[in-house]
């Protein structure tokens, strides 16, 4: 069992405000969990605490049903893949992959077999004699993965491992890492600020803000049933419109909408950018900015004074005015003060 449990986890620097503020999370054996959030939310700090690279201020970290608060990093049986790859520049690819095994006193024959098996699985066989400076970004990333895989650890920690790659290579490496997880059947904890990576890679997504978990659920649950305004705005392209609901009615740009939800007063009505032409209530808006993304256009405009956007197919009429088609059934509602879903 390679489960990881965080109990009331707190990290404070110099006695100031908690960077990690009472995190409770259970990551199951063989699960691929993605920690996502904006810069400074604490996601990379959580990885460093799990790995033992930083000490916790309070709480418990449990790996494989053992409390590891005071366990040295090398004894936690964890592999860490860093954003910067962290390869030894003077060593060959072979020696970089073999380094951890040498430190653990494996025999030469064992090391050679393990390194060559990993190199084969990652298509690195022809690069074993090269130095990191002779490799592309994608090749360096595969070497960093190989160095982690070769030890067969209980848990993999990955801190934005694809952020230094170009867009096409990122897509390719996302698939490689998912394939790797399926093959190894090991627990993966993956940090990113990229919502596409989170949605496409994770069995479960943990959305963080200011050191707290906002929601931890399967990708489809996070996307379709966000718990609060922060989660709704962070995952996907969501529009928030300030409306005043009275007697189940509210207005957007003078057009009336009706809701059967028990809502009264000022709230945020939210609707995703791809749902702006899927309803039966027409609403004409003036486009401010139009972006061409290849297969579609993204159009920016204002609704009730709030900045909004719509994702439109290329054949959708875009003129001085754009005719949106909204449905209250596609809308979410969030309390204006707390941000919680209504």
List the helices and strands and how they pair.
Layout: E1 4-12, E2 18-27, E3 32-36, H1 43-51, E4 58-63, E5 66-67, E6 78-81, H2 93-103, H3 108-121, H4 137-149, E7 155-159, H5 167-184, E8 187-192, H6 195-201, E9 204-209, E10 212-217, H7 219-224, H8 229-234, E11 238-245, E12 249-252, E13 255-258, E14 265-272, E15 281-285, E16 289-292, E17 296-303, E18 306-313, E19 322-326, E20 332-335
Parallel strand pairs: 3-8, 3-9, 6-7, 7-8
Antiparallel strand pairs: 1-2, 1-4, 4-5, 9-10, 11-14, 12-13, 14-20, 15-19, 16-17, 17-18
Helix pairs in contact: 2-3, 2-4
Strand order of the largest sheet: 6-7-8-3-9-10
* Averaged pLDDT: 93
CATH class (first level) name of the largest domain: Alpha Beta
**Helix content estimate:** 10-25%
Content-based structural category: alpha+beta
In words, what does this structure look like?
With 342 residues, the chain is of the alpha+beta class. The protein folds into two domains: 4-224, Rossmann fold, CATH 3.40.50; 238-335, no CATH class. It is built from eight helices and 20 strands. The protein has helices spanning 43-51, 93-103, 108-121, 137-149, 167-184, 195-201, 219-224, 229-234; strands at residues 4-12, 18-27, 32-36, 58-63, 66-67, 78-81, 155-159, 187-192, 204-209, 212-217, 238-245, 249-252, 255-258, 265-272, 281-285, 289-292, 296-303, 306-313, 322-326, 332-335. The strands form six sheets. A six-stranded mixed sheet has the order 6-7-8-3-9-10, sandwiched between helices. Strands 2-1-4-5 form a four-stranded antiparallel sheet, with helices on one face. The protein has a three-stranded antiparallel sheet with strand order 11-14-20. Strand 7, helix 5 and strand 8 (187-192) form a beta-alpha-beta unit. It is globular and about 75 Å long.
